[in-house]
Amino acid sequence: MTTVAPRHPLATDAAIQQSRGELLHLVEERMLGFLANEQARWQDVNARAAQPVAALTTFLANGGKRLRPTFCLSGYLAAGGHPANSVAVDAAAALELLQTFILIHDDIADNSSLRRGAPTVHEVFVSEHREQGWQGESRRFGEGVAVLAGDLAFVYADQLAERLPAPARTVWNEMRAELVIGQHLDMAIAAEGVVDPGLSRWVAVQKSGRYTIHRPLVLGATLAGRPDMAAAFEGYGLALGEAFQLRDDLIDAFGSTEDAGKPTGLDFAEHKMTLLLALAAERDPRVAALLDNEEGEPWDAELLRTALEESGVRAAVERTIANLVDKACASLTGSGLDKAWRHEFARLATQVAYRSH
Amino acid sequence: MTTVAPRHPLATDAAIQQSRGELLHLVEERMLGFLANEQARWQDVNARAAQPVAALTTFLANGGKRLRPTFCLSGYLAAGGHPANSVAVDAAAALELLQTFILIHDDIADNSSLRRGAPTVHEVFVSEHREQGWQGESRRFGEGVAVLAGDLAFVYADQLAERLPAPARTVWNEMRAELVIGQHLDMAIAAEGVVDPGLSRWVAVQKSGRYTIHRPLVLGATLAGRPDMAAAFEGYGLALGEAFQLRDDLIDAFGSTEDAGKPTGLDFAEHKMTLLLALAAERDPRVAALLDNEEGEPWDAELLRTALEESGVRAAVERTIANLVDKACASLTGSGLDKAWRHEFARLATQVAYRSH
């Protein structure tokens, strides 16, 4: 494999942090500046017309890990991309608005009331409708407005991705279809209560592996003119994505709402056949029995948590996560990345796999 | 204003019908072929992954007037665009998938159970969930799946619009933001019961004028290299769009579900402050009184219909529609369009303004 010829000194951890930090700062400015323009434009028409834009601004201001922009810009810089490139900033901003779109729609589907420590978008509008005593059903109004706010984020994401060169646009388009299909499959498996670790793993690979890590990295590398790095980043992304999803499942099963900034225990409440549960059911008949209720009665979260711990599934999953992190890092050896970047990707992998929210 | 130099004989009504008919046929092939590829691709992963694609195929197969493709291709051919151009076909197909996206989301927001004489997408999945006795709430599942199916139509629309040259992409992007904001404003006005003819007219102009007629025409003319025709098409589109919306309101207020292929009386049931009602309330205090109930009690549809007829509002609106059709046609004189095309646009205007569904 060819080696990266850095077009500029990026040899030290400090330099990496600085270049990427500056770009991530520009990403925030780009997103908020874009939304501020739209806000002003629609405000001129009517205050109500600007409501969905304001909802997106608040959603972004409430936080978020900016994982996809971070991976996109890391892939870009690691591949030797020039630190001053507004198209790379736009690409990273587009990824975060795409994530905004899917989170807003996902929170409706999951009936989730809290996100980033604040009420979800639909929750805000359901409450306002109720408090104002407006016409019609509060739930239908609030969820309808949130669907449109998500749609708007989707439009804006694409407008930010408009300047991407053709090879990067191809990655962008592929990502979007994968994302929506993955969400649907996730929902269908949960509703049908399908216990199929293979299928659950496929969903995890799509949602967390490809969408969160692999595609953003490849998007960045492609913008830097290094599509040849796709294979290495795919290995890294798919392994780390599975670890990411398992951690997500563990946080939901055992984490606290305070730490997560969103309600935990949702997967159990919504009968979501997560990768964690699929593996557990495979390994422990007691878990399988708890999950298997034809009548669609609610699962007993306490019994499930206990079973997951006593059967050693929780510990086994932690071992799996550790192995996946090693596998992710190993897939970058021979990729031509310099030492500092291999360190950085190892650091990112640990951060993602051992996060508390 | 410059006159259109037709690059090929399109002088007769018959020739116009034939060229556009052939292109519209290609649009159907393009949409169904695109969806068939996606269907096969996701079917290979898992039957469930292909469900949203199948839902879109069924939705398109159930009919629809293909108004936006028709206006796009009319604008394209009238501006002298060459009849054999796959990008024009893609643009028209993209417009129909964008419409598919918004109708699926709109049917959820309107709690509508019927569309094109068939159950709406969310209705199909709500029923399946209920019949199969799957886990969780049937409404949340069915509406959640439909939101994702709409999202997927949005992604596919954009993939079909991928090859548009930059000036056409600008029209495309502008359209999408306008569309979503217009939908939101429509919903907000309905919920708050705002009686503001100016605002209701603005929404009608956005949704029906710009989105349905003006932008598709300009998109076509731009693809034909005639962006200079935008002004004439704007005049035509905005006037006809208002007529389109008023007809829509009349169909919902007075039409039968059989003719409409969708439930009528929805605007009343959902307290939608339509342009029709806004004008009526302005003209007749009795109507205003019927609409004005602080408690958000359901409106009495029968009393409203009677008031609309006795107060002469219905007749007045029919006069307004006729004037708007004239205005639309008049805006094309001096546009450099040849006689056959001016006839055709007059025919389209009448078709749109006096349709029964």
TrEMBL record, chains A, B:
Q: Please verify whether the record's keywords include Magnesium.
A: yes
Per the record, the domain of life is: Bacteria
Protein's UniProt keywords contain Metal-binding: yes
Query: Keywords of this protein's UniProt record, alphabetized?
Result: Magnesium, Metal-binding, Transferase
Provide the cofactor list for this protein. Mg(2+)
Q: Which Pfam families match?
A: polyprenyl_synt (PF00348)
InterPro entries to which the protein is assigned, alphabetical: Isoprenoid_synthase_dom_sf, Polyprenyl_synt, Polyprenyl_synt_CS
What family is this?
Belongs to the FPP/GGPP synthase family.
Query: What is the name listed in the Swiss-Prot or TrEMBL entry for this protein?
Result: Polyprenyl synthetase family protein
Question: Which organism does this record belong to?
Answer: Streptomyces beihaiensis
Taxonomic classification: Bacteria, Bacillati, Actinomycetota, Actinomycetes, Kitasatosporales
